[in-house]
Specification:
By secondary structure, this protein is an alpha/beta fold. The protein folds into 2 domains: 4-70 and 187-270, HAD superfamily/HAD-like (Rossmann fold); 89-183. 34% of the residues lie in helices and 20% in strands. The strands form 4 sheets. The protein has a 6-stranded parallel beta sheet with strand order 5-4-1-13-14-15, with helices on both faces. Helix 4 links the parallel strand 6 (92-96) and strand 7 (112-113).
Length: 276
Amino acid sequence: MRNYFFVDIWGVLYEKNELYSGVKNSLKSIKDSGKKVILMSNTTRTHEEIQIMFEDCGIERSLYTNIVTSADVLYKTLELNANNGYSTYGKTYCYIGARKNTARKLNIKGYVQHLDYGADIEILILESLKTDDAKDKYKLEIIKNLPMNATIFCMIPDKPKTKMINGKLVLEKYIVEGRIINYTCKPYGLIYSHTLQVAGIAEGNTEKILAVGDTFHKDIMGACGASIDSCMTCTGWTTKMLGLKESQTPSQEELDRLISVKESMPTYIVKGFYIA
């Protein structure tokens, strides 16, 4: 029996600035059955910002238990570092990305922003980069000259703005192999560990959780890595990759083509996030 649902947002509940049909009723049905929904997303927005977005769509706060984003995981990690006297990662940081309020949030915690490359950068926070922009070309020099002992965090938004390259691709191209990179997003472990903490579930006790998502290489592989059963919806990324209509179930041949890692085959495949 599943008591918890870890549900992706974009491509499962929400797309093109509106909810998919039946989402509100499905959330209500899960709530009425006494089960809990925690929404997960690779986004530089915080859970407070997502909550406002859902309220604007008519999704009341009472219909889900909590929201966890890759930005939340970053801020929580750096908050713990600040509470420990900055002993784990240091205090000076450089943020590269499109979000305006990230520096403000970190400065409140006592972090010191650094906008030049040099030996005193202790933390690099990377979201995305616009390679044809003069300012971002300068930021690229910061990445290339990053001190070897600096800690790297990457949030990877699912959908970078036009002409933006997501942080993972930038790091793969310019960062020396062997360096540790802390990804705070799916499919990596930090966001799942944080979500389990938010849900009050001990690591390893995942048999009562079902992760729901539309993206194989993020939602499904991430759940598999966290030992969580998964459910892939035939919406969003899945339909785009296979050239299907929304809620059209793929054939086994199409699934085999889509799912390159057989060990990460989703436990279930459904047309969409709706409960009859």
